[in-house]
Amino acid sequence: MKQWETGVDIAIRKAIEAGEFNNLPGEGQPLDLNMNPYTPAEMQLAYKIMKQNGIAPDWIVSGKTLTAKLDSWQSRLAAAHKTYVKTNNVVTWLTAKDKLGEDAEKLNKEVIAFNLKLPPGVPHRPLLNLRIAIERLSAGK
């Protein structure tokens, strides 16, 4: 017996040696990897039909659209910050920052609505925070 084996390891090894795992239902059959174990049982058939027809759940489609909008906002912020650092034009920077702040508020409403649609277990999207995003850019992160 190996010293690193736990009690569970020992019990499983003994059960295998005793043949307790022989002739189980499905033995020798390929696994059905098309079924998602995280999908609720009552939704398995619906998701399977959607997948076969190239349709994604609404929250996935909405998530892709939201990701594109968030990436665009981040790119606009980075470009405005880069221009400010290069030119030191405070008026242009403040104007861009105001517009980005307004857009962040609108996007945060979309993020909240999106997060409410997510099924349990799927991580929520974080809200935009202009101040923190600018601090990260300034710090070079």
What order do the helices and strands come in, and which of them pair?
Layout lengths: L6 H11 L26 H9 L5 H30 L2 H28 L12 H10 L2
Protein described:
By secondary structure, this protein is mainly alpha-helical. The chain has a domain at 58-139. The chain has five helices and no strands. The protein has helices spanning 7-17, 44-52, 58-87, 90-117, 130-139. Helix 3 (58-87) packs antiparallel against helix 4 (90-117) and helix 3 packs across helix 5. The radius of gyration is 26 Å and the shape is elongated. It starts with 6 loop residues before the first helix and ends with a helix. The model has no long low-confidence stretch (mean pLDDT 88).
Task: Briefly characterize the structure.
This protein has helices at 7-17, 44-52, 58-87, 90-117, 130-139. By secondary structure, it is mostly helical. α3 runs antiparallel to α4 (90-117) and α3 (58-87) packs across α5 (130-139).
